Amino acid sequence: MQPNKSVTEFILLGLTQDPLRQKMVFIIFFIFYMGTVVGNLLIMVTIKFSRSLGSPMYFFLFYLSIADTCFSTSTAPRLIVGALSAKKIISYDECMMQVFALHIFGCMEIFVLVLMAVDRYLAICNPLHYLTIMRREVCIILIILACIEAFIHSVTQNVLVWILPFCGPNLIDRYCCDLQPLLKLACMDTYVNNLLVVFNSGATCTINFFILMISYIVILYSLRNHSSEGRKKALSTCTSHIIGVVLFFGPCIFIYIRPSTTFPMDKMVTVFYTIGTPFLNPLIYTLRNAEVKNAMKKLWSIKITAQSE
Known about the structure:
- The protein is an all-alpha fold.
- Helices cover 75% and strands 3% of the residues.
- A 3-stranded mixed beta sheet has the order 2-1-3.
- The chain starts with 8 loop residues before the first strand and ends with a helix.
């Protein structure tokens, strides 16, 4: 049911209206999306079946890969299909579902990144109590809490849009439904809604980003007391995490800290954190991680050997 809405569908203008560029968008983002799905599935399968990757860090990395895959899937297929469609129409209900999916999986990624930072902090700064604190049961509870918090966040965001009347126009100058363009199309003053977006999405991104940065500064500072080999290994892991955090949080903060204001670059910024970052994360967390690379080689060599026999 739609409360007081005459608009039943929206038109997504996509990234470009040029036919040749639309074909390029289809090819480029199809490759990106397939790379995201294959890369994250490879990480999930490797962690699931490799005994050497049983630590809490890889437990959280497994769920980060799930969040990345679902987060990209909430927007990429619509962009890819829309690039070859004459009319890029999305129904009101599908639009609301896309907003919900975008925020629940985006928020889940934020909380998993926070949990990964907590895990690294305890492993490096409190190694004697690490295994006692980060037991399997504790990790599972933390992931469940992250999912619950992400669900609450997403429902709250959807309510901010669902209560608004839409009378037309129905053109969204984006490739997906999100809060800012929808708030601009509403047939009422959305000042309060924009403030709530800042206090919800904007604050969630900004506060967690600073918490993560402070935690990694503390971790890096504590590494001065470690051996050269231990420092090198921890530094490699933390550097990967910091790169992933900056690539994801930077664009998110840029978009959600100012929902009432839009810039021409917003489209590409949104593309970067919804499609680019999930594509890069498997590369960041595997190419710089010798344990994951060795586990992949061992696992797939065993499977190839078993099939040949």
